[in-house]
Amino acid sequence: MSCTPGLIVKWGSDEREIKDIFDDTTIAELKARIYEETGVRPDRQKLLNLRLRGKLAEDEQTIGSIGLKPGFKLVLMGSREEDIAEASNPPENMSEVVNDLDNDQEGEEVVVENAEVYLAKIHKRIQNYKINELNPLRENKKLLVLDIDYTLFDHRSVASSGSELMRPYLHEFLTRAYKHYDIVIWSATSMKWINEKMKLLGVSNNSNYKIAFHLDYLAMISVCTPKYGLVDVKPLGVIWGKYPAYSAKNTIMFDDIRRNFLMNPKSGLRIKPFRQAHLNRDKDRELLKLALYLELVADVQDFQMLNHRKWEEYKSKKHRRKSQRPSDEFHG
């Protein structure tokens, strides 16, 4: 298998070298590598000169079929999520701003979640996507699905070691979650890089918890929405179709991008993004708070009854009863 080393991606005034590209590397895999280098998600990438016989190359085509040579310069158009978010923020001196993002998205979720065309895509993923189980799933456990970038790991900041980019309390969080939940890692990148990141973070072979399996970008589907246009999302139905013991009743997914939940809005919890690790790693406590939430809801029979948008306000029935008791100082 031959290699096409040193493809160059020109992104504005910036140029990045994309290494370890082989003839059988697909365009989708190339886009995943470009995402690793630039932070531009595959669904936002436009590679203007990636063409075959005058037509834009399709994601399933290979590098070899297009005939790219070493040093070929690809022209990338696309923005990172954080840049889009920053540009979308209103000026600080505006008097009053109504944030209707959540309300708008709720309408889109209803349309997308039940659309037959997307349910058909999920069925195709169930039939064709192969899951490599890393550890056996356990009976009577709930399911926790976790994103990586900006959820568990700051993949854009500079550091001398992976531990400096790891979100604080990651191993404690996974250890506590594992008592009640089987854990799945799902990232919008290639399986190779998911495996590498999990090794880098010391997650792969931790004795205190086990990861059931990894899912990559190939398990995702594209949906078209009025607000965001064409985007890739993470449909939990792919997992539920392969493992009927899991469903919306016992599954929760953490991601820093809410639209990844479009196919499963009630199952998603948007985690606060972990960025600028060098500034925030000493004060970020998000995983500790979420570990407690997972413990509090572990006995809930149907997660569809929960509102994960208000997870920080949640108290279990046991805690509610305790808080409603009169304190000892009022006893006669």
From TrEMBL:
UniProt cofactor(s):
Mg(2+)
Name the Gene Ontology biological process terms: regulation of proteasome assembly
Q: Which GO terms describe its molecular function?
A: metal ion binding; protein serine/threonine phosphatase activity
Q: Does the keyword Nucleus apply?
A: yes
Could you say which EC number(s) this protein's record lists? 3.1.3.16
Quote the cellular component terms of the Gene Ontology held in the record. Answer: nucleus
> Which PANTHER family is this protein grouped with?
UBIQUITIN-LIKE DOMAIN-CONTAINING CTD PHOSPHATASE 1
Q: What is this protein called?
A: Ubiquitin-like domain-containing CTD phosphatase 1
**Record lineage:** Eukaryota, Metazoa, Ecdysozoa, Arthropoda, Hexapoda
